[in-house]
Inverse folding.
């Protein structure tokens, strides 16, 4: 009787505006409000509003048997509050049903954990406060940016009071073992790790509309037959994916919404199946063993590492530089400066600098405002230099 | 194959392209007779080179033809050569005279297909086609629109280009940019035009040890421009960006290597902008001299207003120097690991130049990734694409 744990991650960055060296010291407006609103408007229209409506209907029509979980970044929530309050309301409606769990993460969708544990804790706190304020909700399960994870992090998150954490069900960690169970983590005491079943997750989020895929078109019937095969050797199937899968990565025309509408009924047809949220999974199941995550893994690319964010010298330098300002920024006690500094930590800024498959033109292009990773770096560094100048106005 | 120049007797990238292509074609077993308009001391192990004027029995003379001449600059040359000389009065007549030689050469040589490079050799190619009934492939490296930046297009040259393109059995363009121009301005049906991008022979490059080591060690940065100093290459935009860079950062040298009709204007403009001491004019360079300029530069800039291809960025990258290129260039279609700007956007050009000079990580990534990218380009691939075009033409004409 595998449970289905469907978790959607919702995030949109605040993209930078074209900031040239000649802007440094002249203005401190870093974010391209118009472009961000335009991108978000499209996603709200094509994905968030439609999908939330479907999810709410599913919960009502199944009398609460369908359940779903979200992580919504602080940076997205503040954009929605400002320009699209209807989306906030639709999330509030969902959470009021009691069938929706919210996860904890960094407010700014940052890689802070790697650079400053102090700042990391503050950003997690900011996110918790936002979630409390908007949804009157207190998360108990944690997911770090891009599902990055290792042993040390499990211990750290456990100390922060969380009972569970999400990670990628990476083959090189699991070996012969299955992602469809709960595990303990080497070096940590109690915290349990939920592993993404990447095959079944990616069947929806990546392959759904791929006509060259041998399984295309994917129907709910076919999909449920794969899930039913797990029956007997698995506790839970963790389907973790970007929220924007529904309506944006996979457009409405692909039939993704019809798939979403019918899947829960196919799941529930078998009385052995049910939907669970991460918190319920952690409470219900016992870990079957311990896993060792010596190095950081993520849910990204085939490498399942952070090379899309830290892979080249430009990314390493810009990350190092932004975190080198931490003490001075905080000492300034200037709330606008601190906020700008934090907004510059959003992982997307560094992702846009990725040169790995740039020449092939690939998935990294999604809503990327830059023509090249080099342009992303140049813009970021100009803004960095402006921010730095605000710290030391005398040097200017 | 009708051309107009062949290394080492080249005045620009066109001769380099012809040689690269010939080498790739010969590697694949294609036998080539390369025709040049005038006698130069030029030999190649790759192919037989014959000279259109050499076989003229009635009169043996040197032509003033060179590929980048405009009618006006040709007249200047004639004037300088003095009266009563052996030259025809204008460029067009010279081209047509080369054209007549095409007929004679076609009768004397044995071949399956004619391949003509640019308008100067189109009349020769057409004449050869007419007398031999063999197919003609017209290869466009630059159109009159690109040479003139769209201003003062010479109607006669345009007509020659149009006739060559229209009557050719197939057209090869060096970029999609040029293909679009051929379709829009010359009314050539798109189905007849294939794109074959230029390349660079990576193995031709080796590190020579840069000049000016003292300057470099004192933190001086160098930005290079290599190309004809003419409207098409945008030297004036390069200079205005240089001014903006120098306003922010004084210790930068700008090297302009090349010659051309705007040379005096650009020198004067540098003085007028008060940056004359920061702009060096190196003249027309080739071989190791040119490689040294590439190698000592921290950044290479192609500021072209309209460049059908633009091979110099490939040469710069092969020499390990990162590049900033105009979006209005064909080379922008094959290079990804570089910086790109609109030629008219002086602020962005300066912004990006400064970024490379000030951010070592940016310099490194552009250098390493660009070098990797350019290593993947080869004349062999370009030649193979030409062979595909030949096959298509020959199959078609066999029906």
């Amino acid at each position: 009787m595998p449970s289905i744990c469907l978790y959607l991650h919702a995030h949109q960055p605040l993209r930078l505006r074209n900031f040239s060296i000649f802007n440094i010291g002249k203005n401190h407006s870093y974010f391209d409000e118009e472009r961000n609103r335009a991108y978000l408007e499209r996603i709200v229209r094509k994905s968030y509003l439609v999908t939330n409506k479907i999810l709410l209907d599913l919960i009502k029509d199944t009398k609460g048997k369908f359940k779903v979980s979200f992580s919504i970044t602080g940076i997205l929530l503040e954009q929605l509050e400002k320009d699209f309050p209807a989306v906030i309301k639709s999330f509030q409606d969902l959470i009021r049903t009691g069938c929706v769990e919210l996860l904890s993460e960094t407010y700014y969708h940052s890689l802070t954990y790697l650079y400053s544990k102090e700042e990391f804790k503050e950003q997690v706190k900011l996110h918790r406060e936002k979630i409390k304020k908007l949804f009157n909700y207190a998360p108990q399960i944690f997911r770090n940016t891009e599902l990055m994870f290792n042993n040390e992090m499990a211990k750290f998150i456990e100390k922060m009071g969380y009972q569970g954490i999400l990670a990628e069900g990476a083959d090189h960690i699991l070996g012969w073992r299955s992602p469809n169970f709960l595990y303990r983590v080497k070096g940590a005491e109690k915290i349990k790790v939920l592993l993404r079943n990447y095959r079944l997750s990616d069947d929806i989020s990546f392959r759904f509309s791929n006509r060259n895929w041998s399984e295309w078109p994917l129907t709910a019937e076919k999909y449920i037959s794969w899930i039913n095969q797990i029956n007997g050797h698995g506790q839970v199937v963790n389907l973790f994916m970007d929220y924007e899968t529904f309506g944006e990565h996979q457009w409405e025309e692909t039939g993704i919404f019809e798939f979403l509408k019918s899947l829960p009924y196919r799941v529930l047809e078998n009385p052995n199946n049910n939907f669970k949220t991460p918190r319920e999974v952690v409470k219900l199941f016992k870990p079957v063993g311990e896993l060792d995550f010596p190095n950081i893994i993520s849910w990204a690319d085939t490498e399942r590492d952070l090379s899309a964010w830290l892979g080249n010298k430009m990314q390493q330098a810009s990350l190092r530089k932004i975190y080198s300002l931490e003490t001075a920024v905080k000492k300034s006690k200037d709330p606008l400066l601190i906020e700008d500094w934090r907004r510059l930590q959003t992982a997307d800024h560094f992702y846009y600098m990725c040169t790995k498959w740039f020449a092939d033109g690939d998935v990294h292009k999604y809503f990327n405002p830059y023509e090249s990773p080099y342009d992303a770096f140049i813009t970021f560094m100009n803004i960095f230099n402006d921010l730095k100048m605000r710290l030391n106005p005398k040097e200017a | 194959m009708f051309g107009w120049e062949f290394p080492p007797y080249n005045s620009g990238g066109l001769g380099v392209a012809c040689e690269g292509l010939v080498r790739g074609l010969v590697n694949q077993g294609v036998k080539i007779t390369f025709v040049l308009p005038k006698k130069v001391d030029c030999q190649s192990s790759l192919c037989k080179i014959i000279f259109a004027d050499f076989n003229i029995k009635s009169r043996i003379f040197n032509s003033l033809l060179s590929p980048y001449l405009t009618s006006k600059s040709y007249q200047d040359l004639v004037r300088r050569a003095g009266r009563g000389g052996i030259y025809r009065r204008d460029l067009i007549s010279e081209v047509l005279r080369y054209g007549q030689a095409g007929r004679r050469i076609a009768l004397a040589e044995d071949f399956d297909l004619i391949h003509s490079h640019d308008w100067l050799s189109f009349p020769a190619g057409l004449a050869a086609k007419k007398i031999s009934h063999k197919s003609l492939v017209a290869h466009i490296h630059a159109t009159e629109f690109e040479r003139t930046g769209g201003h003062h297009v010479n109607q006669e040259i345009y007509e020659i280009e149009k006739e060559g393109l229209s009557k050719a059995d197939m057209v090869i363009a060096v970029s999609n940019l040029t293909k679009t121009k051929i379709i829009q301005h010359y009314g050539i049906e798109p189905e007849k035009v294939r794109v074959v991008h230029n390349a660079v022979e990576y193995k031709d490059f080796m590190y020579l040890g840069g000049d000016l080591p003292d300057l470099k060690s004192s933190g001086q940065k160098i930005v290079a421009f290599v190309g004809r100093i003419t409207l098409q290459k945008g030297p004036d935009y390069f200079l205005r960006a240089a001014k903006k860079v120098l306003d922010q950062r004084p210790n930068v040298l700008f090297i302009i290597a090349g010659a051309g009709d705007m040379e005096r204007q650009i020198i004067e403009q540098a003085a007028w902008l008060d940056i004359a001491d920061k702009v060096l004019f190196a003249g027309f360079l080739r071989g190791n001299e040119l490689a040294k300029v590439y190698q000592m530069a921290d950044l290479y800039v192609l500021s072209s207003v309209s460049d059908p291809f633009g091979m110099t960025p490939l040469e710069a990258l092969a020499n390990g120097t990162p590049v900033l290129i105009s979006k209005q260039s064909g080379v922008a279609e094959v290079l990804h690991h570089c910086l790109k700007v609109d030629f008219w956007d002086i602020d962005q050009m300066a912004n990006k130049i400064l970024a490379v000079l000030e951010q070592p990580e940016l310099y490194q990534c552009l250098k390493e990734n660009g070098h990797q990218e350019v290593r993947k380009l080869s004349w062999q691939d370009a030649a193979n694409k030409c062979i595909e075009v030949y096959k298509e033409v020959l199959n078609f004409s066999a029906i």
User: Anything to note?
Assistant: Chain B has two domains: 13-199+378-398, 213-374. The first helix of chain B runs from residue 13 to 27.
